[in-house]
Write a structure and sequence with these properties.
Strands 2-3-4-10-5-6-7 form a 7-stranded mixed β-sheet, with helices on both faces. Strands 1-11 form a two-stranded antiparallel ribbon. The chain has a domain at 1-67 and 328-360: Hypothetical Oxidoreductase Yiak, Chain: A, domain 1 (Orthogonal Bundle), CATH 1.10.1530. It has helices at 15-28, 33-48, 59-67, 96-114, 130-134, 193-202, 237-250, 290-305, 321-333, 339-352, and strands at 9-13, 78-83, 86-90, 116-124, 142-148, 170-174, 182-186, 211-212, 230-231, 275-283, 335-338. By secondary structure, it is an alpha+beta fold.
């Protein structure tokens, strides 16, 4: 299958069915029911908002790591408030979804008191889509941010030929009024490595500007060769520099691995990764009344949406706009999953002795 061949999609899979599958898988792997349900909700939120490489797509890998004992099924997550507006969360090697959501809940609580909160995270794991956690602050009428040291290095420093940087993501969520919240969720590479894995699963060619061969610098388009390639940074040296800075903030600052010290959870599924992340919550009301801010965000977004598009473009794109529309559509119509992914999920269900998607 090449890049021009569409993947076979099993459309309209009920959200409740996918959520139930994840929750049952987590419980069977040893997570307490409440934790399993929370992980399932956060994973499905990634699928709902269009981060298809970070939702149920990741279930086989998570299950594999849980079965190998690489993730603590019953972590005692500890929150150390170090000042009025700072804290450090030790996730006790729990599922990243549990650890990061706890950190953002803490940041929101602290920001209500101090106006802003920065919470660092260590001893965590891969947590899925960055935007899910930044957006948690929206419900509190706050601005949210999230970043992480990615769970594997696939990108070089500017001009380099060694994989010393992860795709270290950055997500920022800004509330609005009648308009969709403004949510930016980006990898610091041209595409996330989850996108590469998704293409490899489907046998789809990679775009020429996604990966290069570290020995020749030539583009890699064959997904079967992607394991040996380097992801290219977003915006050249600027993306590499941003990934480096986020890695220092998410890893080094929190006594978590960065650079050569990062444990590749793809190559070493049985090893503890001590993944580092951080979240920020900012109380809008400390700057101006929330309703006034939300109305002004609305005005700016309406103005930008009405701006003239470049030739060849139907319209301008705003961060979060498609995210909100896609979420509404998928809640109504169900989730689109590729046939290859459904087959993988059915295999996991069979191995765990739980009901497959088709029986839910």
């Amino acid at each position: 299958m090449d890049a021009k061949t569409p993947a076979k999609i099993s459309s309209g899979i009920p959200v409740d069915a996918v959520t139930g599958l994840i929750a049952d898988a987590m419980k069977t792997c040893g997570l307490p029911p409440a934790d399993a349900a929370k992980v399932a909700r956060l994973m499905v939120e990634a699928d709902l908002t269009g981060a298809d490489a970070h939702g149920v797509f990741r279930l086989p890998q998570y299950v594999g790591r849980l079965k190998l004992g690489a993730i603590n099924r019953t972590p005692a997550i500890k929150v150390n408030r170090t000042a009025a507006a700072t804290a450090l969360v030790d996730g006790d090697n729990g599922m990243g979804h549990l650890v990061v959501s706890r950190a953002m809940e803490t940041a929101i609580e602290m920001a209500r008191e101090a106006g802003v909160a920065w919470v660092g995270i260590r001893m965590s794991n891969h947590a899925g889509a960055a935007g899910v956690y930044a957006a948690m602050a929206l419900e509190a009428n706050m601005i949210g941010m999230y970043s992480a040291v990615a769970s594997a290095n696939h990108m070089p420093v500017a001009g380099g030929a060694e994989p010393l940087l992860g795709t270290n993501p950055l997500a920022i969520a800004i509330p609005a009024g009648d308009e969709a919240p403004v949510v930016l969720d980006i990898a610091t590479s041209v595409v996330s490595y989850g996108t590469i894995k998704n293409h490899r699963l489907q046998g789809r060619d990679l775009e020429r500007d996604w990966m290069v061969d570290p020995t020749t610098g030539a583009p890699i388009t064959d997904p079967a060769k992607s394991m040996d390639g380097l992801l290219l940074p977003l915006g050249g040296y600027k993306g590499a520099g941003l990934a480096l800075m986020l890695g220092l903030l998410g890893g080094t600052l929190n006594r978590a691995p960065f650079g050569r010290d990062v444990i590749d959870f793809n190559a070493h599924p049985a090893r503890v990764t001590n993944t580092g992340q951080f979240v920020v919550a900012l109380d809008v009301s400390r700057f101006q009344p929330f309703d006034a801010f939300a109305a002004e965000v609305d005005r700016q977004m309406v103005d930008m949406r009405a701006s003239k598009p470049l030739p060849g473009h139907d319209a301008v794109r705003l961060p979060g706009e498609q995210r909100a529309r896609r979420r509404a559509e998928r809640m109504r119509d169900g989730l689109p999953l590729t046939g290859e992914l459904v087959a993988q999920l059915d295999k996991v269900a069979g191995e765990l002795g739980i009901k497959p998607l088709g029986a839910r």
